[in-house]
Amino acid sequence: MAPDPFTPTHPDIFPVETLASMYQMHQEEILTDFTIKVQGRSIPCHRVVLAAAGPYFSALFSSGMREAQQGAVTMDTMDYDVMEALVMYMYGGKPEVSWEKIENILEACELMQMQDLKEQMSEYILSHIEPDNCLNLQNIAITYGLKEIKKKA
Prior knowledge:
single chain; mainly alpha; three-stranded mixed beta sheet
């Protein structure tokens, strides 16, 4: 009689280690195959990570657009620090986002269709609503469809 099939005892470790390895490769620019150009600066990346992170890059790479074939996209309307934070998030990192960049990050999340990060930013904002910022946050909530913030602000 054959033994039971092998089942990994720690299947949750492999994806975490793989993403950590991809992050390290990104930091060292090893095997990067795509570049995001923002405000005259370049962010080398891996297509597979960008495509897995959301529909924006997945569509760009699968549509045969010129940028996909050239291996680079220019996004000069975006702030470099914001794009760098989004890329760090895509690689599983924990970007530090200053309060001043919150609205820029939300705008980028809308453009890049990064719903998970948008929801996390919303939770962060919810925990920092105060009387002196509630009107501004209410406007941000209306602009980006953040219902919980709109209610609380």
